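Hi support team,

I'm opening this ticket because the web form for multi-chain structure prediction keeps timing out on my end. I have pasted the exact lines I submitted so you can reproduce it. The total is 516 residues across two entries, so I didn't expect it to be a heavy job. Is there a limit I'm missing, or should I split the entries? Thanks in advance, R.K.
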Amino acid sequence: MQKPLILITNDDGIRAKGLRALIEIAKPIGRVLVVAPEEGHSGESHAITTQTPLRLRQLQEPDGGDEVIMYACNGTPVDCVKLGMTHLLDEQPDLVLSGINHGSNASINVVYSGTMAAAQEASLSGTPAIGFSLLDYSPDADFSSVQAIGGDLISKALKFGLGNEICLNVNVPALPLQEIKGVKFCRQANGTWEEGYDQRADPYGGKYFWLSGRYSNNEPDATDTDEWALSNGYVSVVPVQPDMTSYKELERLKREWQ
Amino acid sequence: MQKPLILITNDDGIRAKGLRALIEIAKPIGRVLVVAPEEGHSGESHAITTQTPLRLRQLQEPDGGDEVIMYACNGTPVDCVKLGMTHLLDEQPDLVLSGINHGSNASINVVYSGTMAAAQEASLSGTPAIGFSLLDYSPDADFSSVQAIGGDLISKALKFGLGNEICLNVNVPALPLQEIKGVKFCRQANGTWEEGYDQRADPYGGKYFWLSGRYSNNEPDATDTDEWALSNGYVSVVPVQPDMTSYKELERLKREWQ
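Hello R.K., no limit was hit. The queue was backed up. Here is the completed structure from your submission:
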């Protein structure tokens, strides 16, 4: 039997350490195709490129060795998944992996995340997908704990599958492996970014702004959320769906607005 | 009593006809601040700008007359909402409006939509928000039916409010007003883009790609979806929430994966 086909992408770009770490997890499990952005695309969410042409560049000396095929793309993480699945591959992949992201995608971060948008894009085409993130933003983060834990989740996704159009949002606390207590299946915490702008003046007197902010957990006492799991030494796994309908609000609108 | 404060943005850019149409709806209802992208940002979803500085440019002769204050921003629709709410305004707006988008944001399009991401961004800060879209992609689309219908929804949102972190995804069929049958509160239809890439060669022999695709409704027989409403002559109104957890899949994972 042929090994499963795994498509890998990320949002930190083809040169990111987290991408190389994810390739190392996937290589023993399957045949690997990588299509990742040329540059970093953090915070690009589900953006697609329609106004400029997309290009692919095959890497001649991929780090992963001969068995890994690697392409860089000038588009977004979602463009990478679309191009990989509809142009580069003749068959549907068995699994799409995204990451390992340098930084958290738990709670409301899922909405802004290019890593998770790429995973969701794959799930919309009926392919199980997992986005991995490590709660360490540094370019030189130590991904060894994710490498130790990720293989089991990947094997389970290949063995048991995922529900229709579901992908997994996996976040790993920035702890040494021996301090990680296990894996929690949980829901997305309700949290907000409390933001402001750092206002500056350029040398010509023009004003410009940098976004800055601080994440706040709106339900610090809830014990079934990804934020709780991560704060308490667990890996969080949240199943993510594309249906954004609020069914509770829908009932209220039908009652009160009609 | 002071008139309500309404912040308006869009994803088709400050010059789009749909933005001007939305300003016309809002002007009789409230005080209006517009912060819209300098250029079109369709398909940019919930992208935020963190790697380049943001700038604001106040329009000296806004189309809306003296009572409308207009800014163009070099960022995404979500950047516009963040800058408007945290930098330009001293008080929380009573309502944020986004659009009127040139083209549908029903069904899975909500995931890619900059229009709806802007509305959702406002709702995350506790401000009720509505994204309006007309099912006509032409730059010169006739927005008069949205103008006739939109005021009532805006008034209801101001009067009754919306649930915590909820925004509305309002889509209007491309029909003359007298052929529109009414407003349906509904859920997001399950649909997919069946996509391919148009591959071309540049004058130097380099390959490049354009995304192309066709939307497909995966549940054409369901009568409670936005796609059904729009195909049957109704305006669709879907309440959108930020929680993307699949609770059904979460129960299955806890049972089968743990």
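A quick check on our side: Chain A has a mean pLDDT of 94. Let us know if the file doesn't open in your viewer.
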